[in-house]
Design brief:
By secondary structure, this protein is mainly alpha-helical. The chain has one domain: Up-down Bundle (Growth Hormone, Chain: A). Helices cover 73% and strands 0% of the residues. It is built from 19 helices and no strands. It is globular, with a radius of gyration of 21 Å. It starts with a helix and ends in a 9-residue tail after the last helix.
């Protein structure tokens, strides 16, 4: 019986895996775009972080409308619609690059985020419910492995394809004509992205991807809970995801800015370090959950590790390279200052948070699953808000290192959810 179920879930998992690769490719391109747009649009560090705001605020604004769309279209057609919206967002990058207009870039990023909102709202509960619930975190870890694998690749591709032959980049060293040339280099990659997204619409639309009827599933305590707000583990899970995505984006998307401030070369590729550690974390999840590690324990250990790494980022030296030399100096890969190494290590702490929260928060929602998924997706707004808070603190202090303390508040709430929050069944 279990073998048949594994075989029946293989095709859906493969298709969803392709979509998660696209999620990662589009999402983690932001880490390279931030310092890049800072140069070509002549932005301050705080203004540059509106890249993450425009992208992630789409999840908050569009989550519930997209949940209503999914209820009408079904999950399969909803995924195809999400890909179409993303293709439009990719095409908007063409006039943005031609004009080097930051506002048009933000519109393009918001449109991409809207398409991803539809895809995320549909695909995450799909992965949770396609197999046994006790191994849901393992399946999401596989998706995360694919997602962050794309996150490792895209900054390196961006640096190689967009920034080749441009030397040491800064607003001071580049002429106006060089800045125009840099901006124009964005056009072809986003044209290719639009073409690939259009091709994926056909893959999803004409595949044998099955629909899942969440309404047919039992809703726990349905007689007492007539709204998604009546499920404390769901609401608190959304807050935990807000905290998680906030610090995940800070760790992945500000590391390039931080490296730029410290004068490191190839700062646009630094996001790859954070993603590599996230991949390692997801590998642990795939191998250990649920056989050796429960979803609750994975969340607990992740929060504790995150607190340790934040303290390391804030209080370690930006001149010492000791930790990187010990961890991978022998490999020939370029080493980083200790403080940036700890920022990258947050990727390891973050990896299993998303896979662990989703199954814990969605348990027993039944017919409320689509709305519950939308509420959890709204938690992605942490990626819009927390980096701006980080940027304000950095601007106020005149340096970025101490601003990483914002991560302490994020990990403390995740720790609370791991210990108690996910167990709460009633607000009374």
């Amino acid at each position: 019986m279990s073998e048949n179920r594994t075989q029946s879930s293989l095709l859906p998992m493969s298709i969803i895996g392709i979509l998660f690769f696209i999620f990662g490719f589009v999402t983690w391109l932001n880490g390279s775009l931030i310092p890049f747009l800072k140069i070509i649009c002549e932005l301050s560090e705080f203004e540059a972080l509106f890249v993450t705001f425009a992208f992630y605020i789409a999840y908050t604004v569009m989550a519930f409308p997209m949940a209503l769309v999914l209820e009408r279209t079904g999950y399969k057609n909803g995924m195809a619609l999400g890909l179409a919206v993303m293709a439009v967002g990719a095409l908007i990058f063409i006039p943005a690059a031609m004009s080097a207009n930051f506002l048009i870039f933000l519109v393009a990023l918001f449109t991409l985020g809207t398409g991803l909102t539809i895809l995320q709202t549909a695909s995450n509960p799909y992965v949770v419910h396609i197999g046994p619930k006790e191994s849901a975190a393992m399946r999401i870890s596989i998706m995360g492995l694919i997602n962050k694998g794309a996150g490792v690749i895209v900054p390196l591709l961006f640096t190689a394809l967009i920034l080749s032959d441009m030397g040491n980049l800064s607003e001071e060293t580049l002429s106006a004509s060089q800045i125009d040339e840099l901006a124009s280099r964005l056009i072809m990659p986003y044209v290719i992205m639009a073409v690939v997204l259009t091709g994926l619409i056909a893959l999803v639309k004409f595949s044998s991807l099955p629909e899942i009827d969440f309404k047919a599933e039992e809703t726990v305590h349905a007689e007492h809970q007539t709204s998604i707000l009546h499920f404390p583990r769901l609401v608190l899970g959304a807050v935990a995801l807000f905290a998680y995505v906030g610090i995940e984006v800070v760790a992945g998307d500000t590391i390039g800015l931080y490296g730029q401030n410290l004068g490191l070369e190839n700062f646009t590729s630094l996001t790859s370090y954070t993603m590599i550690f996230m991949v390692m974390g997801y590998l642990i999840g795939v191998l250990a959950i649920p056989k050796y590690l429960s979803q609750e324990r994975a969340l607990l250990y992740s929060a504790i590790a995150g607190i340790i790494f934040v303290l390391g980022a804030v209080y370690s030296s930006n001149e010492s390279y000791l930790i990187a030399n010990v961890l991978w100096g022998w490999s020939g890969i370029a080493v980083l200052p200790d403080t940036i190494t700890f920022v990258a290590l947050m990727g390891l702490a973050n990896a299993l948070v998303w896979p662990s929260i989703w199954p814990l928060a969605l348990e027993g929602l039944g017919k409320y699953t689509a709305q519950g998924s939308a509420l959890l997706i709204m938690g992605i707004a942490g990626g819009a808000i927390v980096p701006l808070i980080f940027g304000k603190i950095a601007a106020y202090n005149g340096e970025m290192q101490s601003a990483y303390l914002v991560g302490i508040f994020c990990y403390v709430f995740i720790l609370f959810y791991a210990i108690k929050g996910h167990k709460i069944r009633s607000w009374k």
